[in-house]
Design brief:
The protein is an alpha/beta fold. The protein has helices at 20-31, 43-63, 68-73, 84-88, 102-115, 169-181, 198-214, 220-231, 237-244, 246-254, 260-269; strands at 12-16, 35-39, 78-81, 93-96, 121-124, 144-149, 158-162, 185-188. It has two domains: 12-188, NAD(P)-binding Rossmann-like Domain (Rossmann fold); 198-280, N-(1-d-carboxylethyl)-l-norvaline Dehydrogenase, domain 2, CATH 1.10.1040.10. Strand 6 and strand 7 (158-162) form a beta hairpin.
Length: 288
Amino acid sequence: MDSPTPTSPYARVTVLGLGVLGAQIALQTAAHGVDVTAYDVDDDALRAGRERLERFAGAAARDLPDLADAYGAAPGRIRLTSDLADAVGAADLVVEAVPERLELKRDVWARVGAAAPPSAVLATNSSSLLPSAMADATGRPERFLALHFANRIWAQNTAEVMGHAGTDPAVADQVEVFAAAIGMEPIRLHREQPAYVLNSLLIPLLGAAAELLLKGVADVETIDRTWRTATGAPAGPFQVYDVVGLRTAHAIASADPASRAWADYLQENYLDRGRFGVESGEGFYTYR
């Protein structure tokens, strides 16, 4: 017999950044009955974020028809603002999903730490940076940890909960309950690990695919078809790249000197041409 879904320990959640994952986190949270405020830097970013919310709501409703009404109503339940202090001023939980640059994240967390209630729990969705690299910027490292989601979070519904050495274990326990309350499968990590569990498994695959392409061993379609056919996986590595987003892939590659050639390849052949993956309708593949 399935266990009942727990009630969220947080009544008010703020999501910082309405990019691909930020919009999904806000949508998933709102669809499960929690009040959500979403922040982005200006009106243009908020408009783009609103479009993502609507698009993801449609995708989630198609994938999970039993919850179609909840996902359909969720975008209208999310309050948008470009005022950071207003966004976090009454938050119980703040989830950050801003671009993957350490100094930017530290700056955002310093501002959040000064404006959010002392009781608020603070979580980064960073896919590659460790929470210990940002914790001190918040001014409350014991209430700070990582909460990492995968793309298409309503279906591929892992939520990796990873504290740092100074995280209060009770805070991590509470965040794990929150993840379950919004329909996720909590994955608890016992210590910090760059790339968590999911990306520790995924990144070597994507890196091997990039190397095969750069060396001219095979083209994108052949590499993907090989992986799908041989493993039964629904998507090949370059299809995964498109879902993750090529800007995210570029940011991660740029931070690693050994991946400089791959970062340059993505910049010249895709980013400079406005091809960012599924989010823009074109990446390694073209999407409707």
